[in-house]
Amino acid sequence: MQMTIKKWGNSLATRIPKAIAESANLHFDQLVDIEEVNGKIVITPIAAKKEYKLDELLSLCKPESMTLDKEDQEWLGDVPVGKEIW
């Protein structure tokens, strides 16, 4: 499909036809990575990062990994050595 490159401010721009956007799973306001590879422009969608809730993250933790070892216990008992606010 042939498209025309237009000026947009100090940059160049073109439109992505709806059929191509749908086929490439591109959406309005979606973040993409754009790069030049061997003389071609490659646009890659950036997947949205999943936002977790605290209870979801805690459910993934193994109880045995939450056990305090001797070093952890000593650190918890430390007193300030400078101007730390505890």
Please summarize what this structure is.
With 86 residues, the protein is of the alpha+beta class.
Keywords:
about 90 residues, alpha+beta, Pemi-like Protein 1, Chain: D, two-stranded antiparallel ribbon, 3 helices, 4 strands, about 20% helix, about 20% strand, elongated
The averaged pLDDT comes out at 90
Helix tally?
3
* Largest sheet properties: 2 strands, antiparallel
Helix % is 10-25%
Shape verdict: elongated
Note poorly predicted spans.
none
Number of strands: 4
Q: Spatial order of the strands in the main sheet?
A: 1-2
CATH class group of the domain at 6-45: Mainly Beta
Report the radius of gyration as a whole number of Å: 26 Å
Quote the CATH topology of the domain at 6-45.
Pemi-like Protein 1, Chain: D
How would you describe this protein?
With 86 residues, the protein is of the alpha+beta class. The protein has a domain at 6-45: Pemi-like Protein 1, Chain: D (Ribbon), CATH 2.10.260.10. The protein is built from three helices and four strands, in the order E-E-H-E-E-H-H. The strands form two sheets. The chain has a two-stranded antiparallel sheet. A two-stranded antiparallel ribbon has the order 3-4. The longest helix is centred in the last third of the chain and has 7 residues, at 70-76.
